[in-house]
Design goal:
By secondary structure, this protein is mostly helical. Helices cover 60% and strands 3% of the residues. The chain contains 25 helices and four strands. The strands form two sheets. It has a two-stranded antiparallel sheet with strand order 1-2. Helix 2 runs antiparallel to helix 16.
Length: 454
């Protein structure tokens, strides 16, 4: 197996017709640096999301107030809202189909699960789209410090973890509204899930102090993040043994100084490195791989490109090839790629077609585009994804979906070589060649254990 085929399957979104893949780790990293897909399918900005939602709100307000033009304004705003949501969703799949390596899209999936949020009401739905684009995709090749700040301070995260409702009890607003107070959700998840990890040595008092330090993080009417000094708990806070805050007037930079320290904490480095090794290589990755990633993380102060370079060139990453089950989103995208679907194909689909081809199959296999049910993100262990119910959904998708999407179907003898290249298994190639029909052969390939693993 050459590096090109190994990296497309292990780190990318799978092989596709006419693409050779990166010759070595340096080529893979160079493609990640350029990320040409962001020119073809631009990021959906938080400002754009806020403006669309604001117009949607105003349209609904006008209609409720009985203004003559209110109904039409509401209809126009709702249509713009739904179009923006569909376009943003389609663009994410289009990038994954058109990108030659697919590594950027796999990383986006990993970090989106690490900084997990879930679609809620209208505002959180459209902000979630901008979160996945600008906070995650736009920062995943920088430093962990920058990525952490972008995710932590994004308005979608403030809504999801109830930060926007947290008020310092002794703040100006808190004294006037005694029924409202501190919310510790965001502070707890920031330490437990996003940085140090659940086994790290921090206390409930650290969480409480951090929650006080984070007061003031709120949303503007335009759905942007602001730091409202009237809601900030007065005085300094001590978190993990270091004092932060207490300035007059309080400033966002005081909380950002804490994030700077947290991003390069030894436990953060170990936690992030372990999760990367689990996601990309094995449910129980080699200790040496985790240790090497952690060392690179610490030595470079969390430079993510350096950590990725260690990961994609590590011998243990290659030795564990085939141990990870493709999660449904990986599987469906890999299937579309090998069948020759392009970004233009997806961008031409209506919302109904997008749902039928991608979103409904994902749901049947246990993964929703609306996000994981829990802030821990999507589970990694294969037992979660290969239950009898989900396995039946995978087989059903492989046997039925290709005939709906591709006409005519490719010859299974060609498709199996496209799917695996130098990683082709002789037994699978033989089984594909003996299929009674093209549909059966394509189904055998896409439902095979080899195609369902990376």
């Amino acid at each position: 197996m050459n590096y090109a085929d190994f990296s497309l399957i292990r780190f990318g979104m799978g092989r596709k017709p006419g693409v050779q893949g990166p010759a070595d780790p340096d080529n893979l990293l160079e493609a990640l640096r350029s990320d040409l897909m962001l020119t073809r399918y631009p990021l959906f900005t938080t400002e754009s999301a806020g403006a669309i939602f604001r117009e949607y709100q105003l349209g609904r307000r006008d209609e409720r107030q009985g203004e003559e033009s209110g109904r039409q304004r509401r209809i126009n705003a709702q249509l713009a809202f739904e179009n923006a949501m569909t376009n943003s969703l389609a663009q994410r799949f289009a990038r994954a189909l058109d990108d030659e390596t697919g590594f950027a899209d796999r990383l986006a999936q990993f970090w989106s699960s690490h900084f997990s949020i879930r679609r809620g009401g209208s505002r959180s739905s459209i902000l979630m789209a901008s979160f996945l684009d600008t906070a995650i995709r736009g920062n995943q090749t920088t430093t962990f410090r920058q990525l952490l700040k972008a995710a932590t301070l994004h308005p979608a995260m403030l809504i999801y973890l109830d930060q926007s409702s947290s008020i310092g009890p002794r703040s100006q607003v808190g004294r006037r509204q005694p029924g409202r107070g501190l919310n510790e959700n965001h502070a707890r998840e920031l330490l437990e899930l996003h940085t140090l990890g659940v086994t790290s040595d921090y206390s409930q008092n650290d969480i409480r102090q951090l929650a006080e330090l984070m007061t003031g993080l709120q949303l503007t009417p335009q759905s942007l993040t602001e730091f409202n000094t009237k809601k900030v708990e007065p005085g300094a806070e001590t978190v993990l043994g270091i004092e932060y805050g207490g300035g007059r007037p309080p400033r966002l930079a005081e909380f950002e100084a804490f994030l700077d320290d947290l991003a390069v904490h030894r436990d953060t480095a170990a936690h992030i490195s372990r999760k990367l090794a689990i996601h990309f290589c094995a449910d129980d990755p080699p200790d040496q791989l985790i240790s090497d990633l952690t060392g690179t993380f610490l030595r470079t102060d969390g430079d993510l490109m350096s950590v990725y370079q260690q990961l994609v060139g590590h011998d243990l990453a290659k030795q564990t090839f085939g141990q990870k089950v493709r999660q449904p989103q990986d599987l469906v995208t890999a299937g579309l790629r090998v069948l020759g679907a392009s970004g233009a194909t997806v961008m031409g689909w209506s919302r109904r077609e997008l749902n039928r081809a991608v979103l409904a199959p994902l749901k049947g296999m246990g993964q929703s585009w609306e996000g994981a049910l829990q802030p821990e993100g999507w589970p990694e262990r294969e037992g979660v994804w290969l239950t009898p119910q989900f396995l039946a959904a995978r087989i059903g998708w492989a046997m039925r979906q290709p005939t709906r999407l591709v006409k005519p179907l490719p010859d299974p003898r060609d498709l199996v070589r496209t799917a695996f290249g130098s990683a082709l298994d002789d037994e699978l190639a033989l089984a594909a060649s003996r299929a009674e029909s093209a549909a059966d052969g394509v189904g055998v390939i896409l439902a095979s254990p080899q195609f369902n693993r990376r």
